[in-house]
């Protein structure tokens, strides 16, 4: 295989991912709330409790 070329299967997968129909939707409000709660708020609470 020449340098800069992709294997046929990998090229097929990349082509599928480049289509707008296959790129998924943005997060909604509930997903953002869960991300903030589980990623920021709960770790901060755990750190605060751990220091007591």
Structure description:
The chain is mostly helical and 52 residues long. It is 63% helix and 0% strand. The protein has helices at 8-18, 29-50. The mean pLDDT is 89.
- Give me the Rg, rounded: 21 Å
User: How would you characterize the largest beta sheet?
Assistant: none
Provide the structure class: mainly alpha
Q: Could you give the count of β-strands? A: 0
Q: In angstroms, what separates the terminal alpha carbons?
A: 61 Å
Number of helices: 2
Summarize the amount of helix as a percent range.
55-70%
- Beta-strand portion reads under 5%
Low-confidence stretches: none
User: What global shape is seen?
Assistant: elongated
Compressed to H and E, one letter per element, the order equals HH
The pLDDT mean sits at 89
Short summary:
With 52 residues, this protein is an all-alpha fold. The protein has two helices and no strands.
Descriptive labels:
single chain, 52 residues, mainly alpha, 0% strand
Helix-strand blueprint:
Blueprint: H1 8-18, H2 29-50
């Amino acid at each position: 295989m020449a340098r800069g070329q992709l294997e046929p299967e990998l090229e097929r997968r990349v082509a599928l991912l480049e289509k707008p129909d296959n790129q998924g939707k943005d997060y909604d409000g509930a997903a953002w709330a869960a991300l903030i709660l589980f990623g920021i708020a709960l770790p901060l609470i755990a750190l605060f409790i751990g220091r007591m």
